[in-house]
Design brief:
The protein is built from nine helices and 14 strands. The chain is α/β, with parallel strands linked by helices. The strands form three sheets. The protein has a six-stranded parallel beta sheet with strand order 1-4-3-2-5-6, with helices on one face. A six-stranded antiparallel beta barrel has the order 9-10-13-12-11-14. Strands 7-8 form a two-stranded antiparallel sheet. Strand 7 and strand 8 form a beta hairpin. Helix 6 packs antiparallel against helix 7. The protein is elongated, with a radius of gyration of 22 Å.
Length: 303
């Protein structure tokens, strides 16, 4: 897959299937668009091109709130998901005020024409231009609007996934995504209390603008040096030890190597429990033993 920044002078010689959208998380609803794009591209011998934005459209249209910066995937993971879905060319264009003022007709004539599209694919509710119209077929291209993909009778959407993560319902978020919610963090030194308790932990610093699940203990898989291991993770403030700053700590089962300075990818699978302030260390250790039993027994619902 080739990654390009949009340029007013760019022009594609090869005919394309052009897919439009922002695709936060590239969930099962989005994946249906790319399944259709692959089908059309194969039948018509076309390249699959995506025109998207590097940042959320809400940053252009709404009053800024810090929560707007939080994404369902890191930029690196988002690119990898596009590649996994068969995209040949991924084109990023900044969503500026001047661009947003274009009408649907202007957008088609000035922007879309550069990609030599024979087919344009969008979601069923995708609107374009300042006049907020759905793209329709022209003499130059066919327009396909992929129907809604539902789960539990409701549309699969990035909003539903964000809500599920905010509620700690990771299993539901993963079911909507179609893959395990993940983030990558740098292993740094902490207070080393986990080792004293018999459960050494990797303390992670997350540098990406990724939505962090709420405080609690979670079943996770952890990718370390190319291998995936089971473990459990805690997000919280170490209330038993009167901690003040939020930490993300991961204990990896059957693993005992120093990995400070390495990057770990954590796949969040399911929430085990809320955070609890224990009366003492013995009660905490007993609870962690129960957490381990549950985490080891968990069966992955998605990849």
């Amino acid at each position: 897959m080739e990654i390009l920044d949009y340029d007013d002078n760019m022009r594609f010689d090869d005919a394309s299937v052009l897919v439009l959208g922002y695709f936060d998380g590239l969930h099962r609803g989005h994946q249906a668009l790319f399944a259709k794009a692959r089908e059309v591209a194969k039948a018509k011998n076309l390249k699959i091109v995506v025109l998207t934005f590097p940042e959320k459209p809400s940053l252009t249209f709404k009053k800024f709130e810090p929560d707007m910066l939080l994404k369902l995937t890191s930029d690196k993971k988002r690119v990898a998901l596009f590649a996994e879905n068969g995209v040949d060319f991924l084109v990023f264009k900044d969503l500026t005020s001047s661009f947003a003022k274009m009408t649907t007709t202007e957008f088609s004539e000035k922007i879309l024409s550069k990609f030599n599209p024979k087919v344009i694919i969008t979601g069923f509710d995708h609107k374009t231009g300042s006049d907020m119209k759905q793209l329709e077929a022209t003499d130059q291209y066919e327009a396909i609007h992929v129907p809604q993909v539902s789960d539990g009778g409701l549309k699969i959407s990035s909003t539903r996934i964000r809500d599920a993560i905010n509620q700690g319902n990771i299993e539901k978020a993963n079911a909507l995504l179609g893959y395990s919610y993940e983030m990558t963090g740098l292993v740094v030194h902490g207070f080393a209390r986990g080792r004293q308790l018999g459960y050494p932990t990797a303390n992670l610093v997350i540098k990406d603008y990724i939505r962090i699940p709420p405080a609690g203990v979670y079943t996770v898989d952890v990718l370390i040096q190319g291998e995936r291991h089971r473990g459990f993770a805690s997000i919280g403030y170490n209330e038993t030890f009167n901690g003040k700053e939020q930490t993300i700590e991961v204990h990896v089962f059957d693993f005992d190597l120093d990995i400070y300075g390495e990057k770990l990818t954590v796949y969040w699978l399911d929430k085990i429990r809320d955070m609890i302030k224990f009366d003492g260390i013995d009660a905490l250790v007993e609870q962690m033993k129960q957490d381990e039993v549950l985490a080891r027994a968990y069966q992955n619902k998605v990849k």
